[in-house]
Amino acid sequence: MKKVAKSFAKLVLLSAMGLMMAVNVAKATGSTIIWIPSADFQGFNSWHLGIDNYIRTQKDNGIRGAGIYDFGLTVGVLPFKKLQAEVGIDYLSMGDNVYDDHPIYFNAKIGIPEGAMFKGAPAIAIGAYNFGLKNNLTNYNMAYGIIAKTIPVLGRLSVGYYTGNDKLLVNGTGGKAGSGILASWDRSMKEISDKLWFAVDYQGGNNYLGSLNFGFSWAFSDKVSVIVGYDIYNDSKTYYNSVNTNKNSFTTQLDINF
Predict the structure, then answer these.
(1) What is the pLDDT of residues 43-65, one digit of tens each?
(2) 2-257, what's its fold?
(3) 171: which DSSP letter?
(4) 76: Cβ–Cβ under 8 A, 6 or more apart, which residues?
(5) pTM summary value
(6) Are the C-beta atoms of 235 and 212 separated by less than 8 Å?
């Protein structure tokens, strides 16, 4: 099953290109909710720049840990309304010489938007992310599938599942923790302002990426918005290097479309 999942992730990545953790909170996804991949896509030839940072809110053994910075670029690559795809590349800086020597990760996603198959149909996306270039260090090779549906008044609900390299995705005792559920709720708060958006998402698994995340976004224009959020990790005892454990973090995410 693990070999099948890895092959599937590589196939998704390579196909979309033809048309990427002992790393802690760092992720290299395409379009997301707050933390998990979403069923959204960049439009054809539409480029997105994301600048995310994560700051630990607690110390471990008197050390807060370095800030995590993610500079990501994503572009839509299919000119169709009913079949969409995007590819992306991320540069991650984590204040750790081991990982910062291999900072490049890739991601890709393909799927269909809501209502494309028939009236009322959900959005469906499959993709791959955290494809690092260093074997046994950054090659998380994570594949996922997600379904999303907007419900009037309530907002959009998403649910899915992911699997990855369980040699790297481990729990606090070193056990394999390479898969889990994905779930989210998000909603534009038009009753207050068209510029305001709230979301909660969850990634299962007692690994470096498993967490409950919540926050809000404010759109300064049609092309620029900022997310402010908080991340509560499922297993705070997982180590992302030889010193610091996976303590909760405060995040800001600047999103620019052009």
Answers:
(1) 999 999 999 999 989 877 777 76
(2) Porin (2.40.160)
(3) -
(4) 41, 42, 43, 44, 45, 46, 84, 85, 86
(5) 0.85
(6) no
